[in-house]
Specification:
This protein is α/β, with parallel strands linked by helices and 264 residues long. Helices cover 21% and strands 28% of the residues. The protein has a single domain, classed as Metallo-dependent phosphatases (Purple Acid Phosphatase, chain A, domain 2, 4-Layer Sandwich), CATH 3.60.21.10. The chain contains six helices and 14 strands. A hairpin with a 2-residue loop joins strand 11 and strand 12 (240-250). The chain is globular and about 50 Å long.
């Protein structure tokens, strides 16, 4: 099985890149399952139902969330009905679910959020393992939406005997530490899909104002920018990760393999 994961899709530029590149990439690399993080898809904050459907139609099978999952209240009904997740460690009383299981394909997709510098919910380190019970023979993919590199690394080391792959999201800055350790894939952060010539996919005006004064207006996504598509592909045999590589594309140029996993 080949799984492709697209990191934080930021606004209209990110959606444009997915629409342009994903159908061709899915066919070229014979991808079986596509997962993507949606939490910045509608102008940088959450996702609207129309943008969910727009992305779904590009070939995304499951979408994962993060701290902006609930920014657009209109998405609440879809969180209950569709393969669109919010973090597993959000409180059970809140809308939606944090895990998607396909018994036919024997795959489980988990959306998990870090603890450091994030809204306070259940400790992800204390709750994750019980949700893996009964899925021993399944491919288990975790999107860990977290701020701190150390927290992502610690989570992987705790879970590497129990999962198939873990990829970090949230910082919007891709890292080059793609590895396969104990037949489990790991990448600290896949990076954003969207604008890359400003600040984490947003106009630099508001971040600069906040850096100077401590205050700013809401961050804004601009349409006119240099764009990047970033994804990672994992190849599984049974529940074990055997190969992995990163894919990049700039604007509407042809995609390329930017890194292959180091096997430890």
């Amino acid at each position: 099985m080949r799984l492709l994961f697209i990191g934080d899709i930021v606004g209209k530029p990110g959606r444009m890149m997915v629409k342009h590149h994903l159908p061709k990439i899915r066919e070229k690399y014979k991808i079986d399952v596509v997962v993507a993080n949606y939490e910045n898809a509608s102008h940088g904050f959450g996702i609207m139902p129309k943008n969910y459907k727009e992305l779904k139609n590009t070939g995304i099978d499951v979408m994962t969330g993060g701290n902006h999952s609930f920014d657009k209240k209109e998405i609440f009904p879809l969180l209950e009905e569709e393969a669109i997740l919010r973090p597993l460690n959000m409180y059970e009383e809140l809308p939606g679910k944090g895990i998607f299981v396909d018994d036919e394909k024997k795959i489980a997709i988990i959306s998990l959020m870090g603890d450091f510098a994030m809204p306070r919910f259940d400790n992800p380190f204390r709750i994750i393992e019980r949700h893996l019970e009964g899925l021993e023979d399944y491919v288990k993919f975790v999107d860990f939406h977290a701020e701190a590199t150390a927290e992502k690394r610690a989570m992987f080391l705790m879970l590497k005997d129990k999962i198939s792959a873990l990829v970090g999201t949230h910082t919007h800055i891709g890292t080059d530490d793609l590895i396969i350790d104990n037949e489990a894939g790991y990448l600290t952060d896949i990076g954003l899909t969207g604008c890359f010539d400003n600040v984490i996919g947003m106009s630099e005006v508001e971040p600069l104002q906040r850096c100077k004064t401590g205050f700013s207006k809401k961050y804004d996504v601009v349409d006119n920018c240099k764009k990047i598509f970033q994804a990672v592909v994992f190849e599984f045999e049974g529940s074990k990760c055997k190969e992995a590589f990163k894919i990049k594309a700039y604007d509407f140029e042809e995609e390329f393999i930017s890194q292959k996993a180091l096997k430890l």
